[in-house]
Amino acid sequence: MLVLVLEGYQILEKICESVASTVYRGIRKTDRRRVILKVLNSEYPTPIQLKRYEREYEILQLFDTASVCQALGLQAYENTLVLIMEDVGISLKELIKTSPLTLDDRLRLAIQACEAIGQIHAVHVIHKDINSSNLAVNPETGELKAIDFGLATVLTQEHPILKNPSILEGTLTYISPEQTGRMNRSLDYRSDFYSLGVTFYELFSGRVPFESGDALELVHCHIAKTPKPLCELDAIADGKPIPEAISKIVMKLLAKNAEERYQSAWGIKADLERCAAQLQENGSIEPFSIGQFDLSDRFHIPQKLYGRQVQIQQLLDTFERVATPNNFQAHITFITGYSGIGKSALVAELYKPITARRGYFITGKFDQFQRNIPYSAVVHAFKQLVKYLLTESEGQLSQWRQKLLTALGTNAQLIVDAIPELETIIGPQPPVPDLEPSEAQNRFNFVFQHFIRVFCSPEHPLTIFLDDLQWADSASLHAIELMLSDLETRHLFIIGAYRHQEVGATHPLRTTLETLEKEGVPIANIHLKSLKLNQIAQLIADTLHDDAEAVRPLAKLTLQKTGGNPFFVSQFLKTLHEKGAIAFDCDRHSWQWDLKQIQQTKIADNIVELTLENLKKLPPLTQDLLKMAACLGSSFQTQTLALVSDRPEAEIGRELMSAVRSGAIATTCEFDDRGYIREYQFTHDRVQQAAYASIAPRERAAMHLKIGRSLWQHTDNLAENLFKIVDCLDFGVDSIHDRHERERVAELNAIAGEKAKAANAYAAAIGYFNVGLQLLSTDAWEQSYDLTLRLYREAAEVAYLAGDYDRLEELADIVCDRARTLLDRIKVYEVQIEAYKARGQNREAIAIARPLLQQLGFDLPEAPTPEQIGDVLETTARCWRDRGVESLLDLPPMRDPEHLAVMRIANRLFAPIFITVPTLLPVLVGKQVQLSIAHGNAPSSCYAYVNYGLILCGIVGEIEIGYQFGQLALKSIDPPNMAQYTAQVRGPFHAGIAIGKEHLKDSLAPLRAAYQKGLEFGDLYYATTCAFVYSLHGLFSGVELDLLDSQIAAYRDAIAQLQQTTTLIYTSIYHQTLLNLVHPSETPWKFCGDAFDEGQQLAAIVETNDRYALCAFYIHKLFLAYLLDGSTDLSELLENSAEYLDGATGTLLVRLFHFYGALTRLKLYPSATEQQRQVHLEAVELSCQKLQNWAKFAPMNYAHKYHLVVAERARVLGEKIEAIEHYDRAIELARQHQYLNEEALANERAALFYQGWGKAKIARVYLAEAYYAYQRWGAIAKVKQLERQYPDWIDSSTGIAPRLGVNTTTTHHSTATESIKALDFATFMKASQAISGEIILEKLLVELLKILLENAGAQVGYLILETDGELLVQARGEREGEDIAVLEALPLGDRLPQSVINYVVRTKETIVKTNATREGKFTNDPYIQTHQIQSMLCAPLLDRGQLTGLIYLENNLTPGAFTPERVELLQLLSSQAAIAISNAKLYQQVRQNQQQLTQFLEAIPVGVFVVTAQGEPFYANRRAQEILGQGIIPQTQSDRLGEVYQTYVAGTDRLYPNERNVVLRALKGETATIDDAEIHQHGKIIPIEASCTPIYDGDGKIVYAIAAFQDITQRKQAEQLLAEYNRTLEQQVAERTQELQQTLEYLQATQQELIQSEKMAALGQLVAGVAHEINTPLGAIRSSAGNMAKFLNQSLEELPGIFQSLSPEQTREFLDLLSRSLQQENTLSAREERKRRRALVGELDARSIENSTHLADTLVDMGIYENIDEFFPLFERPDSPHIVDLAYKLSGLQKSTTRIEMATERASKVVFALKTYARYDSSGEKMATDLSESIETVLTLYHNQIKHGVEVVRDYETLPPIPCYPDELNQVWTNLVHNALQAMDYRGTLTVAIARDGDRAKITIGDSGPGIPEEVLPKIFNPFFTTKPPGEGSGLGLDIVNKIVQKHSGKIEVETRPGSTCFHVFLPLEPH
Questions:
Q1: Contact (Cβ atoms closer than 8 angstroms) between residue 1930 and residue 1922
Q2: Ordered domains of the chain (ranges, CATH)
Q3: Alpha carbons 957 and 945: distance in angstroms, whole number
Q4: Higher confidence at residue 1320 or residue 1033?
Q5: Distance between CA atoms of 453 and 474, rounded to whole angstroms?
Q6: CB of 614 within 8 A of CB of 623?
Q7: Is the four-CA dihedral 948, 952, 954, 960 of positive or negative sign?
Q8: Which parts form a coiled-coil structure per UniProt (predicted)?
């Protein structure tokens, strides 16, 4: 903190200090005037803090009144500012507290305050922080002044933003409702009146209206609560209650709406003066009508809503429903109406209830010019929420961080990409793995839903307002569907507003509305209509402070002009006021208007024109800025406008203020750290529309293009601004003509399309890719291949994702036709495969993949023969047999792209092949495994391994090896980067491999986890595969059906929502099987229920040939028919099941078929023919062999099945002894392995066996076991069937099947009653003992619930306890379960009947229902109806009459389960249980407190040691034990503590004396500290500092001593080291001086070496270019010489003969032909050459010249294709081809000679330049050198780098040679030229100039590159500074250039700007 010492001022005292500033009282020395000095605390204040001081000083300069504190100066002080003001006195708050004030005093002060406020408002300043601390009073004179204008504003109106109450501007206790940002109001001068009202309330009563430590509660009070009137308070004034008149004045000031407060300070003052006058005259104040003189000449249209009360209430009601804890689903309300109708204003009315409910309210607005930006409004809304959370306390923020990380998991980066601000909360997140497009889409949906869930809770309901949905993109509409369809977002309220007239029947929003309606989402619609006449009249009356009837004529005219549109109405009235048609008459003190004048006033007839007229009143520059802003969107930033307008940001801020004052735009942020307001928004769509309309249509595209280019050029974060930039560029795409720019824009569109695709915004992505394709040139496939391929492939993929399959095929055909390689085409083929799969065209998917795989060397036969399958499996086995399965995990990764493509495509084919050609699977998978072993593991190899294991187990029968491959696959997915394959591997592993080695139930938990993991990674197919496998395994592993029912139902709903049709069919079959077991029907083997209806769905399955579905369907029908004694044709079901068994190869269905198929055959056996019996027995034998084999590997799954089949076979064959043995064995094993379903079945079959044998008693015993087991399983249909089948054995009224054994006895009824009583007493005693013997809450709950379940006849029980006023489920148990689940305090939710719970809570009565579904007052409870509850009991737990919880019990098997005796017992137990639970809770709290204390002590980094009053060690924390080397040693006497813990005097071997021991001194009542002790432990000495304090009990006796000590080894070492340093410092200084001298000499030598090294490096840069420059002419010489030799060898001898055969005329023609050829230079393109050839051929053919084609080819090669008539005689000779060939060769000879000459000259130049460059004058003397020659030498050597894209502009003035070191100057030119070329990327203009500059030569080397960044420029001549990547530059180049120039007594300068950089070297012309 600064201590103020300011020259010219004497500081007297510090008055106060806040976080930001300190206020001093002082005296100005020049005139001894008392002053107040306010200074910032920070030594380095931020710019915004300084700016606020400057602004406060500027505002104070506006006042010339005694009512405002005078500013005397603003003075710089060190790094900060001091604001110097007059010393007024003390604050009003202090005066109220310290001085006895009379009512008259208070009135006088209040009147002065009004005077001050009036003066402030008179200069159009709003104070914004009026409170009793900011009104200062001179105690001597009583004069009052306003002070502290730090928050004041000169705006006439502000629009506060909603933010955390803890960071609101102003003093929260005094803040106005509109200042909170939570009112549908802007802020104007009347905000100060509310704050003044709070101040007056305090002035007259001594307290403020609202007091709370909770900031949000205070805000809610200000906006929604009415304070108690002053006259009703206990406060008194002058011994009397506060007068009613004063109370009314203050209450009027405290009105929530500004329109209902006073409208002027003078009106307040007038009423207060009347009160003062009455008090003076009468000694009292009588009531009077206040506000009579409250007139304001300010024109204010009220901000309240007119005619919207019904709609407001509708919104409020919906929000209240969403906010209630028992709300079951998210809601959406759509508000429709024309623009300006008041949709946004209506929504803002929710601020109050949202604040009251502590909810969150966020808004987003879609923009008409940014429709392509995915999720724009949704993202904007959640950015607000994230920013709000960042203002929370650290504790709250930590909670949000944990919630978000838990919800988002490993996919958090997806949301961070959309909302970058989120990273500030959760920290940097790992990148998410790349997935297939459809999986990426699913993953995004999954993560987005989980993100939304975080914020939707009853504690913080979330409201999202999305405005202008008519402009919403399709991705945003889908996001709305996701949010609303998620049942976990119950406390979400979405409000969508749109212009209904712009949403037609085909608008995407209509589709969304229909989808939401189909999904049952609660939807409300509010349509806003125009205002009616009486409503407009009331609005005008309130505006003009008049009567509604009086203004009715004006209202009629307004309605006629505006149509009743509220926005138009307000703009119309403002325009009338501005034009003077409505004006305030100061004489009449009222507003006046003239209807005739108004009717004659020219005002636009529509709102856009009217708004446009108003905009034209603004300054021209402001209008231009608003035009640009309109192109940017509804909101914009000054920084962006500065870029696109090329104006300073400060100027733009100033220009926009006029637009703010006019109401066209509003600020949406506060001053930033530079003192700027940077963020603005248009106040209405119509304003933006008008601003945009003011741009001439022909200029709009150019403006968008200019904005796009500017943003692109200057953006630092392309990713964040990508869509905005691309949208602007695309708007003006037709104006882009430069090919290079078109390609770059096309690439930008590709990036935008990819980003939109990643965000599931497919419509936007399609648009971007289409524009990118449009921008490509006609030869793009040749010139821009990579970009073209990228755009076509991406466009094809997004067409598939959007479901546009025709467009996909069109694009795919182009790629397949134009792509250069197969690998380039593969991506499109993969997309086509996925498209076919998505449409269910699996055969087509295989058909397109087969030839593709064949090209990649991976052959798949169409229908493999058994021999082919066997060959593949054998080959595969040979690959791994020698090396072992586990070693495959260590294979290297697969690298070859073709092999990786094969693996990907093969994986894509697995599902289609599995469904349509399952016999092909072994071939597919075997070859994948072979490929992986041969070429390394691909990421998808894990899937091949698990499928191979599936085949080994299911087809080959190699269960052990198959299981090893399954384990290999599981280990492959262990690394975190393989988590995306979890569902793909876990699904098949548990479906077909683990069933052969592990208990079926053991698969359930991993399958559930894999399902979740699959959803996280968007792998919906395999996630839902895990779900349907879970359903199947749960159904047949004995899981209770009622529990399983809810789980499968949840899976079905989720799979349906995920639109996974295939897996939904499978799950539906399993669910319907369960429902048939649970719900009795006449045909239980038929599927005609809610989950699956075979009549409607089977045909479709047959049509698609889904063999797995058909197999599952028939096997489950077979199972139901067998179990429930169906009268269907079992033989037909057997045949159908067997037919489709290949569709379920290796899965549980096959094993179920052999089990239930065998049982079915044995059931059919008795009625079969002899031949049929033989067939049955053979099939049963085969099944027995399989079951027995499977039982060897997994006896827990199959042993009991095997024994049951064997028992049944023995039964039908009459082998009774064997049957008895195997039945019992089957029952025993089924029970042992918890197969409740098959334990029941084995008992039932045994009962039938004994019944058939005539052993009825034994049969009844087995039947009773079966009956109970079926009941426990929940198979009610089976239970009812047994009741019908055995009515004599089972009492259907009670559901009791007597457990009859050999020693059955019968008792009388009275004995039975006594037995029940005895049993109840025993139960009561047992429960009492359990209750009294257990104090641990969890164990108590378990014991209590066990006893209740065992003896109450309940199936399920719950213990519900009261915690913090809320009832929470603490424990749940089932009678048949082994464990009681103690839950983590779950809310009731929909787990239990809410109406029953509420009744018991309120009445404290026990509820018992014998059949809750059909009788009593609770039959309509949703829970009771859903679960069909029969017997139900709910009893209160009362502790001394207070409710502590509830017991809830159910029995759904039988009605009347809870008898009166049981109820009586439970009531006895409940009171003891309540007391025990209370005691256990108290004990739990004590334990928690104790644990917390221990945790604190263990966490602190100081040793803590506690001893008892007797000195015996009691506790030592972890750090204490580390220092002492041991823990607590019991029974140590106090005088032996030093000895036991080895405490010595520091530096000695003497034990530390007891009289100085701090522990012993503390036990005597002394607090002591020492630092001269040390602990000796295990050869180590630890010096310590220790202190100890006594601890007293309530009687003042010492009960403990607590010591704290720490290791001070480092401190001791530091002290010793400091002493040693002092001793050796002089010696070190001397040695260091010598070292520095040596280093300096070494550096000087190194410098020269570096210069020479850099020169060699520069030379090295030229080597490649020089080599090319020499090789090129040498190549030309070699080629030309070869051509000459070839000609001379072939044609020289023919020349004489040819010439002899020619006539003189023909000889002349020959020579002319040769001459023409030598003059021609062939520059034709290939297309032009073909055209010329065709023309020549036609011309020669017309003259009937033979060999026309050959002649035409040769002539074109010679460059002769026009005017050939003179040569026709020569061409007509028979040997003309030979003659023309000879002419062609002769001309070639001449051209080769010319080429050799040119090449020789070129090589000579290069060699000369290299010699010139390389020469080195070792004399060290300067030489006269021509500068132009020196530079040209370097340019010659750079010719190769220059010639292809650089234009060299030379401007050499003739100068005499200058004295220099030429080799060093060559190095200068080389460095500068090289840097220039690199800066331009070898494309652009290189400027070289030499000129005279006085007595100096000025050499300029410039480039047209991007320029040098401003922040880099000062560093470029620094040694080792480089902007190049590591390894590409030493950073010495320009440093050495600078040194060389300085060595020549010259200097070097640089000029740079975007597009140009010039280095100027100045060298003396004469030697210095």
A1: yes
A2: 1-87 (3.30.200.20), 90-282 (1.10.510.10), 309-527 (3.40.50.300), 533-603 (no CATH), 1500-1607 (3.30.450.20), 1617-1814 (no CATH), 1817-1964 (3.30.565.10)
A3: 16
A4: 1033
A5: 22
A6: no
A7: negative
A8: 1611-1638
pLDDT, tens digit, 9 for 90 and up, residues 1374-1388: 866 556 766 667 888
Which residue is it, tokens 């009053």?
Answer: 1509
DSSP annotation of 434 reads P
Do residues 1069 and 1092 touch, judged by C-beta distance below 8 A? yes
Residue 473, pLDDT score: 84
Q: Are 1759 and 1721 in contact (CB under 8 A)?
A: yes
pLDDT for residue 832: 92
Give the pLDDT of residue 1816: 42
Of residues 486, 474, 1017, the one with CA closest to residue 760: 474
What does the CA dihedral 1276, 1279, 1280, 1282 come to, rounded to 10 degrees? Answer: 160
Q: How confident is the model at residue 1307 (pLDDT cuts 50, 70, 90)?
A: very low
Q: How confident is the model at residue 1664 (pLDDT cuts 50, 70, 90)?
A: very low
Q: Got the DSSP string for 99-142?
A: S---HHHHHHHHHHHHHHHHHHHHTT-B-S--STTSEEE-TTT-
CA dist 1426 and 1211 (Å) reads 43
Burial class (CB in 10 A: 0-12, 13-18, 19+), 527: exposed
Smallest Cα–Cα separation from 190: which of 207, 210, 176?
Answer: 176
| Separation between Cα atoms, residue 1504 and residue 1499, nearest integer Å | 11
Closest CA to 962 of 991, 931, 982, 932: 991
Two tokens, residue 1320 = 């109840």
CA-CA-CA-CA torsion sign (91, 94, 100, 102): positive
DSSP 318-371: HHHHHHSTT--S-EEEEEE--TTSSHHHHHGGGHHHHHHTT-EEEEEE--TT-T
User: Among 1067-1076, 1638-1647, 1891-1900, which stretch is predicted with the lowest mean pLDDT?
Assistant: 1638-1647
Answer yes or no: is pLDDT of 1659 > 80. Answer: no
pLDDT score recorded for residue 1660: 41
**Is 308 a residue whose pLDDT tops 60?**
yes
By 3-state DSSP, what share of the chain in percent is helix, strand and coil, each rounded to 5? 60, 15, 30
Rounded to an integer, what distance in angstroms lies between the CA atom of residue 181 and that of residue 384?
13
Fill in the DSSP letter of residue 187: B
Query: Would you say 1017 and 435 are in contact if contact means Cβ atoms under 8 Å apart?
Result: yes
pLDDT digits (tens, 9 = 90+) for 1161-1196: 999 999 999 999 999 999 999 999 999 999 999 999
**Does residue 728 have a pLDDT over 80?**
yes
Query: Given the structure tokens 């291949």, which residue do they identify?
Result: 785
- Distance CA(1750)–CA(1838), nearest Å, equals 44
Q: Which two tokens stand for residue 1258?
A: 């034994």
Q: Are 724 and 645 within 8 A, CB to CB? A: no
- Are 1506 and 1515 contacting, i.e. CB atoms less than 8 angstroms apart? yes
Separation between Cα atoms, residue 1748 and residue 1777, nearest integer Å: 9
Per the CB < 8 A criterion, the answer to whether 171 and 129 are in contact is yes
Please enumerate, as own/partner, the contacts of 41-46 that have beta carbons within 8 Å and a separation of 24 or more: 41/1, 41/2, 41/17, 42/80, 43/2, 43/78, 43/79, 43/80, 44/79, 45/79, 45/80, 45/81, 46/673
Question: Residue 943 is which amino acid?
Answer: Y
Handedness of CA 1538, 1540, 1544, 1550 (dihedral sign): positive
What does the alpha-carbon distance between residue 313 and residue 317 come to, in Å, rounded to a whole number? 6
- Of 1355, 1577, 1541, which Cα lies nearest the Cα of 1458? 1355
| pLDDT (tens digit per residue) in 1415-1465 | 888 888 888 888 888 888 998 888 777 888 889 998 887 777 787 767 777
For helices 1107-1123 and 1094-1104, give the axis angle rounded to 10 degrees.
140
Model confidence pLDDT, tens digit, residues 1568-1588: 899 899 999 877 899 999 999
